[in-house]
Every structure is written in structure tokens, then in C-alpha cells.
Write a structure and sequence with these properties.
About 30% of the residues lie in helices and about 25% in strands. By secondary structure, it is α/β, with parallel strands linked by helices. The protein has a five-stranded mixed sheet, with helices on both faces. Strands 8-7-6-9-10 form a five-stranded mixed sheet. Helix 1 packs across helix 2 and helix 3 crosses helix 5.
Length: about 220
């Protein structure tokens, strides 16, 4: 357990842009907005507001936890850059948090023990980030690790599980699908607090988001 608190958490992996100052289970302050293509403009404003609301100074922070992917290429870069800038200025570590694991941790606090569920977000029109989990004593375990699968293949992997994400499924009951695509900043912080001890990083030079898929810039002129 990483017990140097408070932690500032940053979440920008999907459409939500948010931050949280986390002291403990009973005391944390969070602010998020749901506004597409606003992360670069809003993230530092959100961080400033949540710091002020929490009643601390920026210098009181002991670590930065940041949602590290997979997710939006642009969103992940913005969140990681913000984390690096703040952590460098304060001389504190970064804890990169696996986005799907933080979301699974959040969902496991809401679902019944033994529930199987899937997180599936779009990579592009043909591929999906996919992982399968099971709730286990208010936590989660992987039953199928994070991978990229095609939209055609994923239908055979669902097995009537609950599905969370923004993937466009065909021939899957809409009753099973819930459009929750990313964790709350609170759970980015909680994941870092409970599970992030071995991921603490002080040397940020090589720290990059987990894109899982190479970012390819296509030339539209060809």
C-alpha cells in the first residue's frame, strides 16, 4: 500500500476530464467535466479548483497518480504531460495507473461478488480494447487480460457478461451494455493507494502512456 497522502489523481483517458485530491476513504475531493476535446484547455483549471476545494497547497501533495491507458491517444498524452509537469516541479513521484484496472476496481465496489464483467472500449471502427474480470470480495480478478480484438471476434467472448464501455456491439442485448468508459478520478487515486506501491516512478523521462496500439498518422493526401 502506498501510504504517503494526499495523492492528486488525474483522469483524461476518455471523454471525462477530471482530478481528485485523495486523503483516505472518507476524505477526498473530486471534480470532472464531460466535454469532448476540452482536456488540454481544462485540466489545469480543474486541478487548481480541486486543490483549492481540498484546503491544501499544491506543495502538500505527496504523489501524482495518472490514468495511463489504454484510451484516447490525445487524452492520455495530456494527462501524462500534466502529471509530469506537476511532479517535476514538486519533486514527487508519479504512479501510472492502468485505466481498465482502475475502472474494474470501481465497478467491483458496485457489483455483487462473483459477477463477471467486461470492459470494452473502441480503438477504431474495427478494433476494441477488451478485458474480462470477475468481482472477488470487493476487488477484481482478471479472467481474460487486456488485449485488442476485432469487433467480429468480441461477440464470441462476451458470454452474456455485463459490458462496460463504448464499443459498438452487434447481436448483444442492450440490457447488458453500460456506457461507462473510464474510472472516476477518485478510483485512479484509490488504485494508486492500494495497489500502486510497485509502480512508483521518480524518473519521468521514459514514462509514457500505455497506448497498447501504435499511433499511426495517416496521410490523407495518398
Amino acid at each position: 500500500m502506498f501510504d504517503k497522502l494526499p495523492i492528486l489523481a488525474i483522469e483524461t483517458s476518455q471523454i471525462y476530464c477530471g482530478a481528485c485530491v485523495y486523503f483516505d476513504e472518507q476524505k477526498h475531493f473530486e471534480l470532472s467535466i464531460n466535454q469532448r476535446n476540452s482536456h488540454a484547455e481544462k485540466i489545469f483549471e480543474i486541478i487548481d479548483k480541486v486543490i483549492i476545494t481540498s484546503g491544501i497547497q499544491l506543495s502538500d501533495l505527496k504523489a501524482i497518480s495518472v490514468s495511463a491507458g489504454p484510451g484516447s491517444f490525445t487524452g492520455l498524452r495530456i494527462g501524462m504531460s500534466a502529471a509530469k509537469g506537476i511532479a517535476t516541479g514538486l519533486g514527487i513521484p508519479i504512479i501510472p495507473v492502468p485505466t481498465f484496472e482502475a475502472l474494474a476496481f470501481q465497478l467491483s465496489n458496485q457489483l455483487c461478488d462473483g459477477t463477471n464483467f467486461i470492459i470494452a472500449n473502441k480503438v477504431n471502427s474495427e478494433e476494441i480494447y477488451f478485458a474480462k474480470f470477475q468481482v472477488k470480495a470487493n476487488n477484481y480478478i482478471f479472467t481474460q487480460h487486456l488485449q485488442i480484438v476485432t469487433l467480429d471476434d468480441v461477440v464470441n467472448l462476451t458470454n452474456n457478461c455485463l459490458i462496460f464501455g463504448n464499443a459498438d456491439f452487434k447481436n448483444v442485448s442492450t440490457d447488458l451494455i453500460h456506457e461507462v468508459t473510464s474510472p472516476k478520478p477518485e478510483f485512479v487515486a484509490k488504485w494508486a493507494h492500494y495497489f500502486g506501491f510497485q509502480k512508483i516512478i521518480y524518473d519521468f523521462e521514459s514514462l509514457e502512456p500505455n497506448y497498447l496500439k501504435e499511433f499511426i498518422i495517416r496521410d490523407k493526401s495518398k
